[in-house]
Amino acid sequence: MPRVRSGAILQSRRRTLLGAVLLGSALLAACGIAAGAPAKRNAREAAKEKEVREKEAREKEARDGGYRFAVIGHSFVDGDEARLKQSIAASDDKPTAFVVVAGIKGAGEACSDKLYQRRRNLIEEAPKPMVVLPAGSDWTECRNTAGRTNAIERLNRVRELFFPEASTLGTHKLALTRQSMSPRFRSYAENAHWSVGKVLYATVNLPANNNHYLTDAGRNSEYEDRLVANRFWLNRLFAIARRDKLEAVVLFSEGDLKALSQPTGLRALLRRAVPPGHDGFAETRRLVLSLAQKFPGKVLMVDANRLEKGAHPAIEWRDNVGHLSTGPGELEVDVDPAGKTLFALAVPEK
C-alpha cells in the first residue's frame, strides 16, 4: 500500500477545516437574515398598529366629545419661512387632530424645485397630520427664464411634490380622498376631503388673486377647467355629507368667496340683471350657497385671506353658513358637537 505524506494529510485537514468554517459562517448569516426579516416586519406592523390606534383614538374623541384643528395662514408675506417653522413647532405641543397649511411660498420667492422641495421636507417632518392647501403665490405668478408665464407647469409640479399619495404630510398620517382618484379629474390632487367624527373637511383650490381669472384676450383655460373640476368636487362633497347624515361641512381655500356678502332676495335678482364683470369667485360662491341651502347642517368656509388693518380673526354666521379668514398667522378652532355653534375659535394659551 502506498504511503501518504504527512504534509499532504495536514493540507487536506486544513482545507476540510476551512470548508467547515465557511459553511458555518454561511449558516450563521442565513440565520441572521431569517431572524432579521421578522424583526423588520414586526417593526413595520407595530408602526402600522400604532397609526391605527391613534386614528381610532381620534375618531373616538370626535364621537365622544370635542377636538381641535389648526390652520396656518399664508406665512410668506415677507418671503420668510421662519413664521411657518414657528407655527409648526407650536402645533407640536397642542392636541390638534390635524393642521391645514395655506401656501408654501411667497410671491417674491423663486418658483424653483429646490424651494418647493425644501418646504415639503419642512412640512413632512412636522409631528401632526399636515394638509397642504395651495396658494396663488405658489404658482400663478411664476415665469420662466424668457419671462413668460409657466403657471400651469409649476402648479403641476406642486401637485407632484405635495399631493402624491392619499394621505397627509407629517410624521403622523391622516387618510385623504383626493379628487385625482376620479379618472376625469386626475390632475386635481390638491382637492382632498377627510372626516373627523360627524364633520366633513375638504380643500378647494381657489387662489386669492380673483381665482386666477385672467383678463387677457382668449380662453381662460386653467381657470375654466378648474371651475368645472371644483363644481364637480363641491357637488360630490355635499352629496357625501347628506348621504352620511353629517353635521357640518368645512371648506378650506386660500381665496375668500365672500359668501356672506352675496345679496339675497330682490337684491340678488337685480344683481343678476347686471353684467357680473370679472368676479372670478361668482359662480363658485353661488354654487356653495345653493348647496348650503339644501344641507341641514352647518357649512363653514375657512380662507387665508388677509385681514383688514386692526381686524382679528372671527367666525361670522348667516343662517347655516359661517366664514372665517385666518390672516397670515396660526389659529385653532374648537369643534364641540354639544356646542350651540359647533365651531369656536380656541382661546390662545398665555
Automatic annotation (TrEMBL):
Residues 1-29 form the signal peptide. The keyword Signal applies. Keywords: Signal. This is Transmembrane protein. It comes from Massilia forsythiae.
